[in-house]
Amino acid sequence: MREAEALKDEVSDFTSSDRRKGELKGTLYVVATPIGNLDDLSPRAARTLASVDVVAAEDTRHSGRLLSHLGIQKRMVALHDHNEKDRAAGILTELQAGRDVALISDAGTPLISDPGYVLVREARAAGHRVSPIPGPCALVAALSVAGLPTDRFLYVGFLPAKRSGRRASLEVLSSEVATLVFYESPHRIMESVRDIADVLGSDREIVLGREITKTFETFYSGSVADVLAELERDPHGNRGEFVVMVRGAAAQAGSEEAATMDVDRMLRVLLAELPVKKVAKMASELTGLSKNELYQRALALKDG
Predict the structure, then answer these.
(1) What is the pLDDT, as a whole number, of residue 105?
(2) Among 36, 25, 26, which Cα is nearest to 56's?
(3) Distance CA 51, CA 101 (A)
(4) How many CB atoms within 10 Å of residue 139?
(5) 128/278 Cα distance (integer angstroms)
(6) Distance separating alpha carbons of residues 272 and 180, to the nearest angstrom
(7) How far apart are the first and last CA of the chain?
(8) For a disulfide at 37, which of 1, 147, 213, 273, Cβ 3.0-4.6 Å?
(9) In 3D, which of 117, 185, 157, 138 has the Cα closest to residue 40?
(10) Per DSSP, which regions of 105-204 are E strands?
(11) Which of 9, 48, 13 is nearest to 30 (CA)?
(12) Which of 208, 41, 179, 39 is CA-nearest to residue 108?
């Protein structure tokens, strides 16, 4: 508790000092909010929401319930995809007048498939302090438990709603070696997984996270074909918000045998000069292969 209060005082002193110097006016705080479980809201996030002058929210009714739960009453403004460009000017005026603003989305970290990019960019360009208050993020939470390579991943956001656009996007990503991460809505999850099976292959490894941090949190994992069958059997398989994670494509470097020999030769050369961890990182950057897999291979070569 004393450490938290000290941090609060430190932040307060920093802001007050800057304002006295006239270098900055109001601060824009980008605040992560729970993706399901309200206990995931950090004490710092709650303290920030209580201290700012204005809360800019994607949906003021939805976020109003969060503030009410916290016992906080604040002036709120709506900032969403359809009005962000126009609304940003008014929020910049608030900042210029010395008022602090918290930017929140309906759930999770703002700007991650949520509004806020225009406001953050314009606030920074105007010289205002923009400070992150980190916390829940669905894609990070899902990746942390998926059991897929995370040393390199590509967050794609939502795939196109129309089947033709969705399949075209997947075709472009079909040779990507990084783990692919998508968000998907419940009414399109079945169609999206079927398209992933058709375009990326039914044997590609996939992990779906549904209703993460909520009461009915569920993870489905296995080949795309197996997971699709599991979804179809599950009466709740098309309910809730989904994070879809797909193992990246195998790196293409000639025949598998030749590629293995070349990689092993590279690892041996690097191991003569560098520690295993550094070797795995460099080899991953050069080949596109998983750093974790290269680490294990380098370790075996060193011990052998």
Answers:
(1) 96
(2) 26
(3) 9
(4) 23
(5) 39
(6) 34
(7) 51
(8) 213
(9) 138
(10) 129-133, 153-158, 179-184
(11) 48
(12) 41
Closest by alpha carbon to 151, among 27, 290, 9?
290
HSE-CB at 118 with a 13 A cutoff on CA atoms is 14
Q: pLDDT-derived band of residue 281, with 50, 70 and 90 as boundaries?
A: confident
Digit-coded pLDDT (tens) for 8-48? 444 444 444 444 444 558 999 999 999 999 999 999 999 99
* Residues in CB range of 130: below 8 A, 6 or more apart: 27, 28, 30, 120, 123, 124
Phi, psi (degrees; rounded to nearest 5) at 138: -60, -40
The strand ranges marked E within the chain are 27-31, 54-57, 75-78, 101-104, 129-133, 153-158, 179-184, 205-210, 218-223, 242-246
Per-residue model confidence as pLDDT tens digits over 147-201: 999 989 999 999 999 999 999 999 989 989 999 999 999 999 999 999 999 999 9
Q: Token pair for residue 154?
A: 């590509």
Q: Which residues make Cβ contacts (< 8 Å) with residue 58, sequence separation at least 6?
A: 78, 79, 80, 104, 105, 106, 114, 115
Q: What are the structure tokens assigned to 198, written together?
A: 């058709």
In 3-state terms, what secondary structure has residue 174? Answer: coil
Torsion of CA 127, 133, 135, 140, to 10 degrees: 20
| pLDDT value of residue 10 | 47
**Cα separation, 207 vs 111, whole angstroms:** 24
Q: Strand pairing partners for 55?
A: 76, 102
| CA atoms of 119 and 198, how far apart (whole Å) | 39
pLDDT digits (tens, 9 = 90+) for 214-264: 999 999 999 999 999 999 999 988 889 999 999 999 876 444 544 455 788
Whole-structure pTM value: 0.77
Q: What is the pLDDT of residues 52-63, one digit of tens each?
A: 999 999 999 999
